[in-house]
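Lab manual, section 2.4: Encoding a predicted structure.

Procedure: take the sequence of the chain (252 residues), apply the prediction step described in section 2.3, and record the output as structure tokens. A sample record is shown.
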Amino acid sequence: MPDISLPTQPIGWAQNFGKPLLLYGLPAILLLAVILVSVWIKIKSRKSKITSTLDKVLENEQMIGRILSLRADCKTVLLAAPSLDCLPINTPVQIALAVAQSGKKCLLIDLDTRRNAAARVFDIHSSPPNKPRPVPTQCKNLSLWPAAFFTEFAQTNLRNLVRSAAANFDIILLNAPYLDGNPDRRQIVSVSDGAFVFCRNSSQKNRLSALLKTFECKLLAYCPVPEPSKDNSPQADLSISQTTLSNAGQSK
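Recorded output:
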């Protein structure tokens, strides 16, 4: 009878089939896994940023609503923080824009003399020829007192400025991102009717709250600030959306 026993050794193509799979298949699977994990991390990070942005928008809307509901004799609102990373310039600018778009005449007084940031946002570079005065922006109902005016005109008195502005504006916003260490912090608080305090921890909150209480400045709200991200650099916060400014200016 013919010998029909199966071969004890695999034929050549079957013996070599597993080599390419080990050489190329396994690394490809690992690479795909790495790509999928990276995509998942990016999606999660993006969702976190969207949630943070929505929370910020809601917080700003609540502040704006509170400002617009203030009594007529409560015009001067202080936006205070112990340091710049707690109050980037985009926050007071967006609040000022919203107040102006509500139909109220708004003056934003920038006390950030280290950077003159608000003037850079609105692209205001010229100084008044003789006497400093609020500078109208491209946005209807919104004027700006650049921080540079306080250094160029050292005789400028904040109390007199606020008193004069009260006759011409419905709301006066004071941007004070360095209030904790500002040598004029007592005068700044004393001319303010109410304040929003932006802080990262309770010690900062307690220091600024005590300062407000000393001069009977009403605490309108405490705004907790999350830990800074990579995008919260001093330069990053100057990149205000020009679309927002141009849209606001179209209603002028």
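Check your result against the sample. The two ends are 105 Å apart (CA to CA).
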